[in-house]
Amino acid sequence: MKIGIIGSGDVGRVLGSGFIKEGHEVMLGTRDINKEAVIKWLADNPNSQVGSFADAAIFGELIVLATAGDITQAVIESIGSNNFGNKTVIDATNPISHTKPPVNGVLQYFTSADASLMEQLQSLVPDAKFVKAFNSVGNALMYKPDLPGGKPTMFICGNDDLAKKTVTEILDAFGW
Fold first, then answer.
1. Residue 93: predicted pLDDT
2. What backbone torsions phi and psi does residue 134 show, to the nearest 5 degrees?
3. Looking at the predicted structure, is the pLDDT value of residue 163 above 70?
4. Cβ-count burial 122-143 (b if 16+ within 10 Å, e if not)
5. pLDDT higher for 61 or 117?
6. Pairing between strand 129-132 and 157-158?
7. Which of 6, 114, 122, 136 has the fewest Cβ atoms within 10 angstroms?
């Protein structure tokens, strides 16, 4: 499958490398194709591609959102909702506020208790099939986690059964 990763930070690069190891074609979408970490990732994954966020969205049969939560809406708007079409979108984002400091060590969110970030993103791209996954673990555990007790459980949510089945198969291959 062709996977378009939107975001070239640690999460995007880790997931992109995992998809490559599982035999998928990957394009990593980034704002800066000359970013040192992106150049290194491309060298480590020579059969992959790097392009703009829009390039990755167009390329992908499946899209992974791996941007900071507070910029994700603007990124989707810059790409254009038409480039998400009828595709499954794995949403690995979190609504962590970068303007509010943690309170007693607890990260603050920019969403309310009544509205999730994924619901907001789904309303921007109603034809896409969003599935929330990978947002509840650190990037070091996203691909082939080796934990005592065997395979861990990854919680997912979404409103499309076929998309959730596809993501569940990916999670199984990734060691979840």
1. 92
2. 70, -5
3. yes
4. beebeebbbbbbbbebebebbb
5. 61
6. antiparallel
7. 114
Q: Dihedrals φ, ψ of 28, to 5°? A: -90, 120
Give the three-class secondary structure for 15: helix
Token digits for 149? Answer: 């007790």
Say how far apart CA 64 and CA 53 lie, in whole Å: 11
Query: How large is the average pLDDT for residues 137-150?
Result: 94
In what helix (H) or strand (E) does residue 29 lie, and over which residues does it extend? Answer: strand 25-29
State the residue for tokens 């959730």.
Answer: 164
- pLDDT score at 22: 98
Q: What pLDDT, on the 0 to 100 scale, is given for residue 41?
A: 97
* Phi and psi, residue 153, nearest 5°: -100, 135
Q: Which of 96, 98, 176 is nearest to 133 (CA)?
A: 176
Give CA–CA dist 169/171, Å, rounded. 5
Name residue 173's amino acid: A
Q: Please check the confidence at residue 95 and state whether its pLDDT lies above 70.
A: no
For residue 152, what are its two tokens?
A: 């861990």
Task: Give the Cβ contact number of residue 145 at 10 Å.
Answer: 15
What is the β-pairing status of strands 2-6 and 62-65?
A: parallel
**161 CB-contact burial (10 Å; exposed 0-12 / middle 13-18 / buried 19+):** exposed
Quote the CA–CA distance of 79 and 121 in Å, as a whole number.
Answer: 13
